[in-house]
Design a protein that fits this description.
By secondary structure, the protein is an alpha/beta fold. The protein contains 16 helices and 17 strands. The strands form 4 sheets. The chain has a 6-stranded mixed beta sheet with strand order 2-1-3-8-7-6, sandwiched between helices. The longest helix is centred in the last third of the chain and has 20 residues, at about 400-415. Helices cover about 40% and strands about 25% of the residues.
């Protein structure tokens, strides 16, 4: 019978020295965390540990004290350094028994690929008698399901597509059948143009009301963007209604900063509006060095609206190719409103596009002066009716400045089209 604790607590443990020393990036935890949270689990902790048996046992002991579900990945391969199965056998008791179904599948797996099946592969068909098997149709190591004191421990191979395959085919259904899980519902509102602290200040009262109603608000900042996640936990459709209501309120409070939700990207939404309106855009980039063009072209089908880019990094390219006045470059400097406006307008005409976007600035970390410090960047957007420029005062980190400038250009174009 299912047992009820609301919400269920979960821990994720990734096993392997290669993760600890940075040779392998742990993508399993991020994927499992998202999927298990969507299922109704509250993810309390994520560990990355050595593949030494004592570390596995210690992590298990600590996790089982606090959580109802522990998911381990890694250490189930056929080589001598894969010790997870042996450690779990000692931890939960029982004996290793040959599972004929797994053996038959392994024999078919290797035969179909015309690869000799070695004895170490045959050993993969042995499972602890204290566990239930989770068949792996994507590799040689099957998963294992253990139960102890009404708690569940799942052990999975570390290869990401094997982890995902086992959980999709068997693991998630088994968990929903075993546990009585609450509904966890999220809406993630995506914003651009302002930092986390400014956004939080603008919606302070809204956030207080959301927290008072039992909802949880989280800010997830990245370069140039802030995600606002609204979460609710409940046992009926009411939780969805409450979360949706608070999400819609945000559109009334900070409409100019919101560009999408959940898996949207600024380049995707901007491209969608360009396509819907039958408009085109071209870029003239100096300090961003083509990154803005990359953002546009990272979207499939962007050839419908993106005409091209001219990376005018050197002054003679700005003058001779893009047609910027050398007198204005000498008088105002390349990092100036006058120059960036000409860049935007000239690339628009050169590419025969509806919009031209230009960037020019000091991305850093070197090259600044007292008059024009690092992080001083001008952007401009030219249309058939106007040319508008904006001065940005950013930091000293080069890559962040390039990324932030490109995001602000995309957002500014989106606002321009929505006027």
């Amino acid at each position: 019978m299912p047992f009820v604790i609301s919400p269920m607590q979960c821990a994720i443990i990734t096993i392997g020295d290669e993760i600890l020393i940075g040779k392998t990036i742990d993508t399993n935890s991020a994927w499992l965390g998202r999927k298990l949270n969507d299922l109704g689990f509250d993810i309390r902790q994520i560990h990355s540990i050595s593949d030494k048996p004592k570390e596995i046992v210690r992590a298990l002991d600590e996790s089982l004290e606090k959580t109802d579900l522990v998911v381990l990945t890694g250490g189930l391969g056929p080589t001598n350094d894969d010790l997870t199965k042996k450690t779990l056998l000692e931890y939960f008791g029982g004996e290793l028994l040959l599972d004929q179904e797994i053996l038959d599948r392994l024999e078919g797996y290797f035969k179909g690929r015309k690869i000799p099946m070695l004895e170490v592969h045959r050993q993969q068909a042995f499972q602890p008698s204290s566990s239930k098997k989770l068949i792996n149709n994507f590799g040689s190591a099957s998963g294992m399901w253990f139960e102890k004191d009404n708690k569940v421990i799942i052990s999975l191979p570390g290869v990401p597509y094997e982890t995902k395959g086992i959980m999709r085919e068997y693991g998630f259904d088994a968990l929903t059948a075993h546990f009585e899980l609450p509904t966890i519902y999220h809406r993630t509102i995506l914003t651009w143009g302002k930092g986390e602290s400014i956004i939080a200040q603008k919606i302070e009262k809204w956030e207080e009301e959301a927290n008072a109603s039992g909802l949880k608000i989280a800010y997830l900042p990245s370069v140039g963007l802030v995600k606002i996640r609204i979460s609710g936990i409940g046992d009926d459709e009411g939780i969805k209604i409450r979360v949706d209501k608070k999400a819609e309120e945000l559109y009334q409070i900070i409409p100019r900063y919101i560009f999408g939700e959940n898996g949207d990207s600024l380049e995707l939404i901007t491209g969608k509006i360009l396509r819907e309106k039958g408009l085109t855009v071209a870029t003239a980039e100096s300090c961003t060095g083509g990154y803005l063009a990359h953002k546009f072209t990272s979207v499939s089908g962007s050839s419908d609206y993106f005409k091209g880019s001219l990376i005018a990094y050197a002054n003679d390219v700005k003058e001779k190719v893009l047609g910027v006045s050398i007198k204005d470059i000498e008088k105002y400097g390349v990092v100036s409103e006058e120059v960036v406006k000409q860049m935007a307008e000239n690339v628009r005409m050169l590419m025969n596009s509806d919009y031209g976007i230009a960037t020019s600035g000091i991305a850093g970390p070197d090259g600044g002066s007292d008059e024009i410090p690092v992080g001083t960047i001008w952007i401009a957007i030219a249309s058939k009716s106007s040319v508008n420029a904006k001065l940005l005062r950013l930091g000293t980190r080069r890559i962040n400045n390039i990324m932030t400038t490109s995001i602000i250009c995309l957002g500014s174009l989106l606002q321009e089209m929505q006027k």
